[in-house]
Design brief:
about 85% helix; 3 helices; mainly alpha
């Protein structure tokens, strides 16, 4: 693994830990929701980086599926926090 890939991997791991810290210590539920959404985006970035490094395309399939699930989960959690039903 070249130095630039290691640097990107390290930056993404630091972002993961910062998001986990915000999820655990967030002062309010919306802050935690945003941190969960950002963590999903960082995981997609990690999957894309793994796809580039290894040359295997199934990591991109995992990234696409994770992005879709993260988006749907964030929308569902935002509606729940707002007090609205899922059918609205």
């Amino acid at each position: 693994m070249s130095l630039i890939y290691q640097l990107f991997f390290g930056i993404l791991m630091v972002c993961c830990f910062l998001c986990l810290y915000r999820i655990g210590r967030g002062p309010s539920a919306p802050d935690r929701t945003v941190a969960i959404d950002i963590l999903g985006t960082v995981v997609v970035g990690l999957c894309a980086l793994l796809a580039i490094i290894t040359g295997k395309d199934f990591y991109m399939n995992i990234a696409i599926a994770w992005a879709l699930l993260s988006f749907i989960g964030t929308i569902a959690l935002a509606k729940h926090l707002e007090g609205r039903g899922f059918d609205e």
